[in-house]
Design goal:
The chain is mostly helical. The protein has one domain. It contains six helices and no strands. Helix 2 packs across helix 3. The longest helix has 15 residues. The protein is globular, with a radius of gyration of 16 Å. It starts with a helix and ends in a 6-residue tail after the last helix. 8% of the residues are buried.
Length: 97
């Protein structure tokens, strides 16, 4: 028989790996700045913002994005992530939302 604690830990582990879309409203000037910065770094806005959220959580004394969802960085790479500026430009509709 499986220990209930093992089942609970496995469920929590699986939930940390689920990726969900979140929308955020920002002034156009900020969106343009983020797009430019992501382009200059050869990454996507999603990866850039995930990094900012990771830093903010750690600064607040909480575990960061990448330590809680260890495969999330792989997800960012599969979806474009680092070194995907060309692919990102080809699909850019000019609207972050």
């Amino acid at each position: 028989m499986t220990d209930p604690m093992d089942i609970e830990q496995n469920c929590v582990s699986q939930k940390t790996e689920i990726v969900r879309e979140v929308r955020i409203r920002l002034p156009d000037v900020i969106v343009l700045d983020l797009k430019l910065q992501a382009h200059m770094e050869g990454t996507t806005m999603n990866a850039l913002i995930a990094g900012y959220i990771d830093e903010g959580l750690k600064k607040a004394g909480r575990p960061g994005v990448f330590s809680r969802a260890t495969r999330f960085s792989d997800y960012l790479r599969r979806k474009g992530g680092y070194n995907s500026a060309a692919a990102n430009r080809a699909q850019d509709d000019g609207n972050f939302t």
